[in-house]
Amino acid sequence: MPRFLVPDMTCGHCASTITKALKAEDPHASVEIALAQKLVSVESTLPAEEIAACLAAAGYTPRPA
Questions:
Q1: How is the beta sheet containing 39-43 ordered, strand by strand?
Q2: Contact 12, 2 (CB under 8 A)
């Protein structure tokens, strides 16, 4: 399961935006967000690079965790 550190994810709205963006790319994705740790974990058929690109397109700066 790819995990990303997203330092600019600061609130529940950010978490919701990230979840919606990922679900738009893969409706069957399982998205787990640890807001306090700024971690996003995604179980998806998409490769990690596409997940990172989706997060970036949503306005965030993901780094592999």
A1: 30-34, 39-43, 3-5, 63-64
A2: no
- Asked whether the beta carbons of 31 and 53 are under 8 A apart, the reply is no
Pick from 65, 4, 36: nearest CA to 21: 4
Instruction: Tell me the whole-structure pTM to 2 decimals.
Output: 0.93
Residues 64, 48: Cα–Cα separation, whole Å? 9
Q: At 61, is the pLDDT very low, low, confident or very high (cuts 50, 70, 90)?
A: very high
How many domains does the chain contain in total? 1
Query: The CATH number of the domain where 27 resides is what?
Result: 3.30.70.100
Q: In which residue are the tokens 């592999």 written?
A: 64
